[in-house]
UniProtKB/TrEMBL annotation, chain A:
<dbReference type="InterPro" id="IPR012944">
    <property type="entry name" value="SusD_RagB_dom"/>
</dbReference>
<dbReference type="Pfam" id="PF14322">
    <property type="entry name" value="SusD-like_3"/>
</dbReference>
<keyword id="KW-0998">Cell outer membrane</keyword>
<feature type="domain" description="RagB/SusD">
    <location>
        <begin position="290"/>
        <end position="608"/>
    </location>
</feature>
<keyword id="KW-0732">Signal</keyword>
<comment type="similarity">
    <text>Belongs to the SusD family.</text>
</comment>
<protein>
    <recommendedName>
        <fullName>RagB/SusD family nutrient uptake outer membrane protein</fullName>
    </recommendedName>
</protein>
<feature type="domain" description="SusD-like N-terminal">
    <location>
        <begin position="72"/>
        <end position="217"/>
    </location>
</feature>
<dbReference type="GO" id="GO:0009279">
    <property type="term" value="C:cell outer membrane"/>
</dbReference>
Automatic annotation (TrEMBL), chain B:
<dbReference type="InterPro" id="IPR024278">
    <property type="entry name" value="DUF3823_N"/>
</dbReference>
<keyword id="KW-0732">Signal</keyword>
<feature type="signal peptide">
    <location>
        <begin position="1"/>
        <end position="18"/>
    </location>
</feature>
<dbReference type="Pfam" id="PF12866">
    <property type="entry name" value="DUF3823"/>
</dbReference>
<feature type="domain" description="DUF3823">
    <location>
        <begin position="32"/>
        <end position="118"/>
    </location>
</feature>
<protein>
    <recommendedName>
        <fullName>DUF3823 domain-containing protein</fullName>
    </recommendedName>
</protein>
<dbReference type="InterPro" id="IPR041186">
    <property type="entry name" value="DUF3823_C"/>
</dbReference>
<feature type="domain" description="DUF3823">
    <location>
        <begin position="121"/>
        <end position="222"/>
    </location>
</feature>
<dbReference type="Pfam" id="PF18003">
    <property type="entry name" value="DUF3823_C"/>
</dbReference>
């Protein structure tokens, strides 16, 4: 027995001795990547960039179904536990965004690629640096448009353990300084980004210009319209508020950038003779001519559930939760008629009597084709099948119509014909439209796109040419230059309007064009903010059709023996689930800064009204 | 066997229960701080849940405010622990921001505190009268902050005591350019059909300064219709 122990001890001793090659301990790890490896391998850097691109921020964007139902374009018709979206007022922290984690990651990467990336070619290196600086500018733009001026941190902040943290306490920059920083960065990198010009999902020269176009327009309109307020919103140090004198310069910068893009390799998507379908295809089919910068999705690897969330009730291929976004009547009415008249729907005549229509879709006839591409209304179709929308029947009784709806969707009335359609609308119901409209824009028509197993892969447009045209139009109009008219008319011509449909441009026309062209693309909240009219449009008035999301319900007339029998009438309703009018307060122009940020950095100035 | 199991089970359970006696026996805050927001010792009418105060307490590593919202008649209340608090008058209100001019509050029992503020404007001598289908309001708008400008003067009618800029049925704009400070002004509104059948309605006048996000209101007046 003892011999066995001795042998065992000897064996151990021998084996331990045998590893005298020190380098055995210094092998390269198989499961971690060192900084030197990362910053010298273009493939690894590209995959890191994919992470950063995926983290690009938005408020109501990137298929944020819930966010899209928090303004006046739509209400929430999905599960009841999220009905708060129909029953809230914008808190003073609404839209708060303070992501110095992402800024720090980008600063760290920029420093490391400079010092460690020795094996990269200069062209590779400047391209990667350009992309990261673009992302950083994008993030700062998102912060400045929500918070006002923020601390401009462009390098890592490292504590030196001296007991004095003041070097880490960066004060807020002026609001104008942040916009100037964004402009300067983009001007510096745009040439380096040209190598990406054929790629839609990475920053390229035109992406930088598009961000420039948008950011400079925001800065210009804040400079102009903040100063026009009865009491401009500002802080003494300029952290909030831009002097009116800077507006012209910003408008010029925006217009210059827009013009360069318009002169570039893009064209307004116009390949389908059916203008409404064309507008829908423009965002559904990944067209390379229109979209400048997109967040792409691919089957099996990265998908989104916007179609699952929002498809028409009867067409869902899944078993739960469809139809969350119900577009508002005010959005539908902001689409004008093709003859140029205002888009108010003609539901009643001058005497207050219902106007009858032979077909459910007739009331929407001759409207801006973008209405078809954005909203699904009664009498239209989706995925080549007709939607089954009808709120109920209008029975003529003693000189007036009695509007009745059935308890279950898809039931037949006593005359054997449809009572309430399977797609509603139904008041106070879940997962069916509560306003009489569904969203079409960006809801994919691909097979199985509305299943959670497959999901949708249509891309999210960060920037597209339609916006750039309207940016250019607005900047030119503000500068008093004539070319704005042509830009607006081009966008309208693509929507089915005759050529040169507008002869005199006004602010209202430009603003309405932005609402209808860019609906659900994360613009409206910020547009109303920068024009300083959000507190007027969303004034919390319970009777105001802009502050309240209204609906339009269609009814089939039951009036045997009369010429109107079997025709359709429309009633304006306020959906029961919509509980509180949108109320935008002065404090919402700049989101409040979080208390832990104020606790951590005594140099941070609070926002006005905070 | 069964008895042994039960014994062990009971012993184990009582151990578990006994061990969590530490953390959930903090007392709830027991004292009430209540009061009114006043100007010249008269309460100011505000929008319910609109303007707010912040209460702060020193002596803790992390600071976070306790928000105190006001009722429509300018009264407020908060349940607090005993201690020293600082009360700040925030912006987004119809009065001057005095964020750094704090009021120290020592809460040792139920405390009553009237918070003086400097509204940009105030409304005095308001009377409401009904004649036929019209409600007319007589009131005086006084300028308190000399640099302030009036943006809007409005008369509101509503069906509940919570009548203000947001919750109301009727709103009538007064003519700002002809408004004379310190002199009586009249505004009148027709009672709409949906209010005519009620036993009583509520009326109120509000003034908004250009620099303020909120209106200052008269107190709500109940008016019998029948």
């Amino acid at each position: 027995m003892k011999k066995i122990y001795i042998a065992f001890a000897l064996f151990i001793g021998l084996t331990m001795n045998s590893c005298k090659h020190d380098d055995w301990f210094y092998r390269e790890s198989k499961n971690t990547i060192s900084d030197e490896q990362l910053w010298n391998d273009p493939n690894l850097i590209t995959s890191l960039l994919a992470n950063y691109y995926n983290r690009l921020p938005s408020l109501h964007g990137v298929f944020n179904t819930g966010g899209m139902t928090e303004i006046d374009d739509a209400m929430w018709s999905g599960t009841r536990d999220q009905n708060g979206r129909n029953d809230f007022q914008y808190g003073s922290d609404y839209g708060r965004y303070w992501d110095y984690g992402l800024i720090r990651d980008l600063n760290l990467s920029l420093e490391n690629i400079n010092t460690l990336g020795v094996k990269l070619t200069p062209a590779q290196k400047s391209l990667f640096i350009g992309e990261m600086r673009f992302i950083r500018a994008f993030v700062y733009f998102e912060m400045v448009k929500r918070m006002g001026g923020v601390p401009l941190v462009t390098k890592q902040l490292i504590y030196d353990f001296s007991g004095d943290p003041t070097p880490l306490q960066v004060p807020r920059a002026k609001e104008s300084e942040v916009y100037d920083f964004i402009y300067k960065e983009l001007e510096e990198i745009k040439a380096d980004l040209a190598a990406n010009n054929s790629i839609k999902t990475r920053a390229n020269r035109y992406t930088a210009l598009a961000l420039e176009s948008r950011a400079m327009l925001y800065a210009a309109s804040i400079a102009k319209y903040n100063s026009l307020m009865a009491a401009p919103i500002s802080t003494p140090g300029g952290e909030v508020g831009i002097p009116a004198s800077m507006a012209t310069d910003y408008y010029n910068k925006s217009l210059t950038a827009s013009k360069e893009i318009i002169a570039g390799p893009y064209a307004l998507y116009n390949e389908n003779a059916d203008k409404g379908a064309n507008f829908y295809d423009m965002l559904n089919k990944k067209p390379v001519s229109e979209v400048i910068f997109a967040k792409d999705f691919a089957l099996g690897t990265k998908v989104h559930r916007f179609t699952y969330d929002n498809i028409v009730k009867s067409m869902t291929e899944d078993n739960e939760a469809s139809s969350a976004i119900s577009p508002s009547l005010s959005l539908v009415e902001s689409f004008n008629y093709l003859d140029g008249s205002k888009g108010t729907l003609k539901d009643k005549d001058a005497n207050g009597n219902y106007i009858t229509y032979t077909n459910p879709a007739d009331i929407f006839a001759n409207k801006d084709a973008r209405l078809f591409g954005t909203v699904i209304y009664p009498g239209t179709s989706f995925k080549n099948s007709p939607v089954r929308m009808q709120a109920g029947v209008a029975v003529y009784n003693n000189g007036s119509y009695q509007l009745t709806t059935s308890a279950v969707l898809g039931a037949n009335y006593t005359d054997g014909q449809v009572w309430t359609g399977f797609d509603g609308p139904k008041d106070d119901a879940v997962d069916v439209s509560n306003t009489g409209f569904y969203i079409r824009k960006m809801v994919s028509d691909a097979p199985a796109a509305s299943t959670r197993g497959t999901s949708a892969v249509n891309w999210w447009p960060w920037f597209r040419l339609g916006e750039i045209y309207l940016n250019a139009a607005e900047a030119a109009f503000e500068l008093g230059r004539p070319e704005g008219l042509g830009y607006v008319n081009s966008v309208r011509a693509r929507a089915g309007f005759p050529a040169n449909s507008i002869s005199v441009l006004t602010n209202d026309i430009i603003r309405n064009e932005r609402r209808v062209e860019l609906a659900f693309e994360d613009h409206r909240y910020f547009d109303l903010k920068r024009w300083r009219i959000a507190h007027i449009v969303w004034d919390g008035t319970e009777t105001d059709p802009n502050a309240v999301v209204m609906g339009l319900y269609s009814y089939r007339v039951v009036r045997p023996g009369h010429q109107d029998n079997g025709k359709y009438i429309y009633a304006r309703v306020r959906p029961t689930r919509f509980r509180r009018a949108r109320l935008f307060r002065m404090t919402n122009y700049y989101s409040s800064i979080a208390q832990d940020v104020l606790n951590g950095n005594p140099k941070i100035v609070r926002n006005p009204f905070q | 066997m069964k008895i042994k199991f039960l014994t062990i089970f009971i012993a184990a359970t009582s151990l578990f229960l006994a061990s969590c006696g530490e953390y959930d026996n903090f007392d709830a805050p027991e004292f009430t701080l209540s009061g009114k927001v006043v100007y010249q010792n008269k309460p100011l009418g505000v929008r319910n849940n609109g303007p707010r105060f912040e209460l702060w307490q020193d002596g803790y590593a992390l600071r976070s405010p306790i928000y105190v919202y006001m009722n429509q008649d300018g009264s407020f209340s908060a349940k607090l622990f005993a201690g020293q608090y600082k009360l700040t008058r925030m912006a987004d209100a119809p009065w001057l921001q005095q964020a750094t001019d704090t009021i120290r509050v020592n809460v040792t029992g139920d405390t009553n505190l009237d918070v003086p503020v400097t509204p940009y404007f105030n409304i005095t001598n308001e009377t409401f009268a009904k004649s036929g289908n019209t409600i007319s309001a007589n009131f005086v708008v006084n300028k308190v902050v000399q640099t302030a400008n009036v943006e809007l003067v409005r008369l509101y009618l509503g069906k509940s005591i919570l009548t203000d800029q947001v919750l109301r049925d009727v709103r009538v704009d007064g003519n700002v350019s002809s408004l004379v400070f310190g002199s009586p002004t009249t505004l009148s509104a027709d009672i709409p059909d949906n209010l005519k059948t009620l036993d009583f309605i509520y009326a109120r006048v509000g003034v908004k300064a250009t620099v303020a996000g909120e209106y200052v209101y008269s107190q709500v007046q109940k008016i019998a219709l029948k």
